[in-house]
Write a structure and sequence with these properties.
The protein has helices at about 5-30, 80-90, 115-130, 145-155, 175-180, 195-210, 225-230, 230-245; strands spanning about 40-45, 50-55, 65-70, 95-100, 135-140, 160-165, 170, 175, 185-190, 215-220. With about 250 residues, it is an alpha/beta fold. It has an eight-stranded mixed beta sheet with strand order 1-2-4-3-5-6-9-10, with helices on both faces. It has a two-stranded antiparallel ribbon with strand order 7-8. Helix 1 crosses helix 8 (about 230-245) and helix 4 (about 145-155) runs parallel beside helix 5 (about 175-180). It starts with a helix and ends with a helix.
């Protein structure tokens, strides 16, 4: 007789296969890469007049889905190139913004103090490039995952999240509280088993999430963006998830 745990594992496998199938079908239907997978520099100003710079990976087609990738202090924007190019290949426009302290915040440590305004500027930049405002996703890594969650909890235009090695408390964000406010919108949690803090936080947040959510724990000790850059299966899972829910 099949046990409850086996049934849950089978359902999770079937959902993953469904997501991958949907990703392949949509990639075949939609317009594909705008040109060679080379990022284009874009910029916008925050409400406080500070310039936010981004690396934009465009796709052809009218009003494609778009994602904002949050590069934190450990991840210069160029480190996201491979991930951004993969989403671009799947027909999802991608914008990578830098959350490191800007020139206006010289001497600052950690993430820029106007991070939420910077994310809002990134959202505007995507809209200016013609992406669909109701098909917006955010990928956040490490501290950026908590900021992505807190931002999305207060912005109903964010349709989906991918959180890499989140923390329960970082950058002043109570992640459990924010995931409850985020509500029933889709969220994907990715972490590695050797990152005890990130994997445990992902499990707790998965249990708290009210809507469609998935949790994948991979072998290894990678954390943050490295979860994607060191694991092809993690990257493909993230792309398949975004393609299916946006």
């Amino acid at each position: 007789m099949i046990g409850e745990r086996s049934i849950r594992r089978l359902l999770a496998l079937l959902l993953t296969l469904s997501l991958l199938s949907a990703a392949a079908m949509r990639c075949g239907r939609e317009g594909g890469i705008e040109s060679a997978p080379v990022p284009r520099a874009v910029s916008s100003e925050t409400a406080g007049g500070v310039v936010v710079e981004g690396r934009y990976y465009g796709v052809r087609g009218d009003a494609p889905p778009g994602i904002v990738c949050l590069a934190d202090t450990a991840d210069p924007p160029g480190e996201w190139d491979a991930v951004a190019q993969r989403t671009q290949q799947a027909g999802i426009a991608c914008l990578v913004i830098d959350l490191r302290p800007s020139q206006e915040h010289k001497g600052g440590r950690g993430l820029r103090p106007d991070a939420f305004e910077a994310i809002a500027a990134g959202e505007r930049m995507l809209a200016e490039q013609g992406t669909a405002q109701d098909r917006l996703g955010i990928i956040g890594a490490g501290p950026g995952a908590c900021l992505a969650l807190a931002y999305a909890a207060n912005d109903a235009d964010v349709a989906a999240l991918v959180l890499l090695s989140p923390s329960l408390l970082a950058e002043g964000v109570d992640a459990q509280q924010e995931v409850a406010v985020y509500g029933r919108r889709p969220v994907l949690f990715l972490a590695c088993e050797g990152d005890s803090f990130g994997s445990r936080a992902s499990q707790v947040l998965k249990e708290t999430a009210a809507g469609l959510s998935q949790l994948h724990i991979y072998q290894g000790t990678a954390a943050g963006l490295d979860v994607l850059t060191t694991s092809l299966s993690a990257t493909e899972q993230a792309v398949a998830w975004l393609t299916a829910v946006l």
